[in-house]
Specification:
single chain, 167 residues, alpha+beta, Aminopeptidase, 7-stranded mixed sheet, 5 helices, globular
Length: 167
Amino acid sequence: MREIEIRKAESEDAEKIVDVNFNSWETTYGGIFKQDVFEKRKLNKDKNIAWWKQHLAGEHDVYVALVGKKIVGYMDFYRESRTHEGYAEIASIYILKDYQKRGVGRRFFEIAIELTKQANKTKFMLNVLDKNSSLEFYKKMGGKVVETFEIEKSGDKFVEDVMSFDV
């Protein structure tokens, strides 16, 4: 397998980031969420691309994983959590299924740890659906569930965990 490169994302990456997000959602949440959740997301693809272009044009810490020129994953990181004071936050981390379990997630976590330290924080957090297969990886990376809450998708209720990571 070719080497995986990690770099800061650029505005031109927006469409490929959305593609990774959509693909990862289908492979991660297929069989968990109803199909209409995925169909609604596809209808809003252009809106999602526009949002990412704007997001990437700002001062955000978004990193992509590449194999050759192909984006195979990304991480969106906030030095100030949007919901938990005193924390930094991984807002999203998605890796195409064929590239999981190859060290990409670990490398994203190493970046998150460094960014957390740069922000003078001692911990970061992320939210993860309790049925997400990545939950075990997050636990191996030192994550501890510190809170749970309920979300709704297409009328169905799901449990989401807030995980905390010390740096």
